[in-house]
What we know:
Layout: H1 4-8, E1 15-19, E2 22-26, E3 36-40, H2 52-73, E4 77-81, E5 91-97, E6 101-104, E7 107-110, H3 127-143
Antiparallel strand pairs: 1-2, 2-3, 3-5, 4-5, 6-7
Amino acid sequence: MSNATARKFGYPDTLIAEVGPWLLLLRPKQPTLGSLVLVCTEDARAFGDLSGEAYAQLRDAVRGAERMLKGFVGYERINYLMLMMIDPDVHYHVIPRYAGSREFAAASYVDHGWPGPPALGETVDPGPAAQAELIAELRRRWAQPDPAA
Length: 149
């Protein structure tokens, strides 16, 4: 199941993982390497309207995303932005933050906002082949067992 926000961010092609009502999607425009969108599929336009189940499963989605991104990007901080100005369905932009740059598929991903707020206007568009490679790598990492479990 999806909604307009998930489809705008490329669902089902950008899907990395599904945790209950939460879809973890690759953000097509990458302000930093590994930037994601975490979209709730419940019919809710306000954070306070989510079900108790959605709140409980948000924890699992966030823990999984942080584990996956820590191993992939080696972020120093992670930002969760719930802007919901254009796309009204409950969702977060998940932006791994780091000093310097990261490399993937022959492209450099610089965190232009470090150490301040993320520079969402400064993005890398990985293109179809690199995007598919990035999604495949993140899916592989998501599927790895959690060593802390």
